[in-house]
Design brief:
With 152 residues, the chain is an all-alpha fold. The chain has one domain. 75% of the residues lie in helices and 0% in strands. Helix 1 runs antiparallel to helix 2. The relative contact order is 0.08.
């Protein structure tokens, strides 16, 4: 990864060096799941490489395959980051739920009240989840284009 950084510092548009650096960042992140900052850096590097490939494609048509490869890697990295964030969010939600249940259990002596509070909490949680607009990222959607040919 150090060589890639040095190559990029010498030539900011070195697509191969950016590609290698992004791949190594993703591999390091796979080994240590807590390093999401590396995944973000890999995504930024892939975006730079993709943009550089767009510029070079204008003059060199052989860059199209490299551009497609970078696009796929970028989508995969974004998907990994999205899934990690979702997983982290689910863990946090379960921790909060456990904490609230423990508070209710600790501070409420009446078992009917405990059940009522837990049911109310569950109801509020469901209502909030229904009200939140869930946005699906582009890389999880299929883009469909329609071409209409008119012949007269």
């Amino acid at each position: 990864m150090g060589d890639s950084r040095q190559a990029i510092s010498l030539d900011e548009n070195n697509i191969k060096a950016m590609n290698i650096m992004a791949e190594s960042l993703i591999e390091i992140e796979k080994k240590d799941a807590n390093k999401t900052s590396l995944l973000k850096e890999a995504i930024n590097t892939l975006e730079k490489a993709y943009n550089a490939s767009l510029e070079q494609t204008k003059t060199d048509e052989t860059m199209e395959s490299v551009q497609r490869e970078l696009d796929l890697k970028l989508k995969r990295a974004r998907k990994i980051l999205y899934l990690k964030r979702q997983s982290s969010l689910n863990v946090k939600k379960s921790e909060v739920r456990k904490y609230i249940e423990d508070l209710i259990e600790l501070h409420e002596k009446d078992t009917n009240k405990k059940k009522e509070y837990l049911d109310l909490f569950t109801e509020l949680k469901k209502e909030k989840e229904n009200n939140i607009l869930k946005e699906i990222p582009d890389y999880l959607n299929c883009k469909i284009s329609y071409v209409f040919l008119y012949t007269h």
